[in-house]
Specification:
With 522 residues, the protein is an all-alpha fold. The protein is built from 20 helices and no strands.
Length: 522
């Protein structure tokens, strides 16, 4: 009897647990149908993808130089050198030649990701505009997973180079589609700025935490472990994309507006100014990352752990800069251009003070200033790109964020190759002064954006810019919803709804009435 009672008790508890699991699954399914909950989960998925991409970009910093040096030593051990009377001189010159060759190999390997990303982005932006944001995000995560596995098990330079280049291909799809998806889901400007700010915080965290993460695991567990860990996270994020976003079951893309071609966006003067600012503000970070370790070792005799943790303290001012800009943008959205210009001035001043530092503690302050300024520029200008597309073009964001990704890639493609040459021929001091001066001189260009907030979306934006008629009732409804939200944004920011972007309001109103009263297009 006791045995039967015990078994029935176990059966009841199992039934209760199954019932609770069923309720939780039902609640999760209900939450996924709620648009607000769904876009939060999408934000988490995109942030994890951006975190992974930037960790993969920076995790090789402490690993690859040491690993390639070991490979070089192993190869040199198998080479039999014929002894001559001037053996010492021969060995010394050969060592110097090998070191120079190794430095070039490391620089090319570091830059290959950004170079391929730069080349693929124009194509990936157009592809995203055509098929939507979810499938390119899945493609990007898949390619990143494959490249990470190749990195883990690659044992020669050619394999590592292929893996690094493949990562650039994945980034061109994952980064662009992820940020564009955030801009598409968060259509209200205040929410969009906050969501993009969160994404930028994950990007910063990945870039600054990856070197110590990779260095510690490489030291105690070997080369493969950090990449295997990141590959597992990438696989989990891809699984979430398949189960939550369901890219192959959602075909609403067919009814959405056609995006403005990327070459037209590039010729938009407002977008061009923003793209230039994104490139210029990231040059100090991109140029200092491959050069500052050698300078620290030469001038202040820094230890390995100091060089490894150089950028880690800068994460906190970067997050602070994101938080401050989001709060200020919510209260004074018409000053986004000013926040970006202020950030560039801070970057310029901080960059000029780097060579004056004599100790590790002193160096932390200007590096924190650089990252704080970058946070101001990125957080202010990335939402501005989406707003410019909303008011001057069709509200499809793949191509415009491909332009943003191109801007970043230009800086990071030049960094590992150009920075070393500048330091070698001109010096580290001249490099920093030049970068600081360029940022300060570019800041006034953002004055061109001071009236952006006064632009208003036009119903006839498709007819004016794409020279084609609206494609159905969906377009009309979508544009009406967006215009209502922009009106709320303008009143919240005390912005006047003045048509400063070249559209004729009377024509826009006439076009709306014709679209609304006419038959639905097929």
């Amino acid at each position: 009897m006791n045995a039967e009672g015990g078994s029935s008790g176990l059966a009841k508890s199992a039934a209760v647990k199954l019932s609770e699991m069923g309720e939780r699954t039902k609640k999760f399914g209900t939450a996924m149908k709620d648009p607000h909950q769904q876009r939060r989960i999408i934000l988490v998925i995109v942030c994890v993808a951006l975190l992974l991409d930037n960790m993969l970009y920076m995790v090789i910093v402490p690993i690859i130089p040491d690993y390639l040096a070991d490979l070089e030593n192993e190869q040199s051990e198998h080479v039999h050198v014929v002894m001559h009377p001037n053996t010492t001189a021969n060995i010394t010159s050969q060592d110097k030649s090998n070191k120079d060759n190794l430095d070039i190999q490391i620089g090319v390997l570091f830059a290959s990701k950004a170079i391929l990303q730069l080349l693929v982005n124009p194509l990936s932006g157009t592809f995203i505009d055509r098929v939507g944001y979810d499938i390119p995000l899945l493609i990007g995560l898949t390619v990143m997973f494959v490249s990470t596995c190749i990195f883990a098990f690659g044992e020669n330079y050619a394999t590592l180079f292929a893996a690094r280049s493949l990562q650039g291909l994945g980034s061109a799809f994952a980064d662009t589609s992820g940020i564009a998806m955030i801009a598409d889901k968060y259509t209200e400007e205040a929410e969009r700025s906050k969501a993009l700010g969160i994404a930028l915080a994950f990007i910063s965290f990945g870039s600054l935490v990856a070197p110590p993460f990779g260095g510690v695991l490489y030291e105690f567990a070997g080369k493969r472990v950090p990449f295997i860990v990141l590959a597992c996270i990438c696989l989990a994020d891809g699984f979430l994309v398949l189960t939550v976003i369901k890219p192959f079951s959602n075909r609403t893309r067919e009814n959405m507006p056609v995006g403005t071609p990327i070459y037209r966006l590039m010729f938009d003067p407002y977008i061009a100014v923003v793209a230039g600012a994104l490139t210029v503000c990231n040059i100090p970070l991109a140029f200092l990352e491959p050069t500052i370790a050698n300078w620290m070792e030469t001038t202040m005799h820094s230890t390995q752990w100091e060089m490894g943790l150089t950028w880690l303290p800068a994460f906190f001012p970067h997050v602070l800069g994101v938080y401050i800009t989001v709060k200020l943008a919510a209260q004074h959205p018409h000053l986004q251009w000013f926040y970006g210009a202020l950030g560039m001035v801070i970057i310029g001043a901080s960059s000029c003070t780097v060579p004056a530092c004599k100790t590790f503690g002193q160096l932390i302050a200007p590096l924190c200033g650089i990252c704080f300024g970058i946070a101001l520029v990125d957080t202010a200008l990335l939402p501005t790109l989406a707003f410019l597309v909303d008011v001057r073009h069709a509200s499809v964001y793949g191509s415009v964020y491909a332009i943003a990704d191109i801007s970043y890639s230009v800086a990071y493609a030049m960094g590992p190759i150009v920075a070393g040459q500048i330091v070698h021929h001109l010096g580290f001091v001249q490099l920093n002064l030049g970068m600081g001066l360029v940022n300060v001189l570019y800041a006034p260009a953002l004055l061109l954006l001071r009236n952006v907030c006064q632009m208003k979306p036009s119903y006839s934006e498709r007819d004016n810019l794409l020279e084609e008629a609206p494609q159905g009732l969906y377009d009309t409804i979508k544009m009406e919803e967006r215009r209502a939200k922009k009106k709320g944004y303008s009143s919240a920011g005390n912005c006047l709804p003045v048509d400063e972007n070249g559209f004729d309001p009377s024509r826009a109103q006439r076009s709306l009435s014709e679209e609304s009263s006419g038959p639905e297009y097929t």
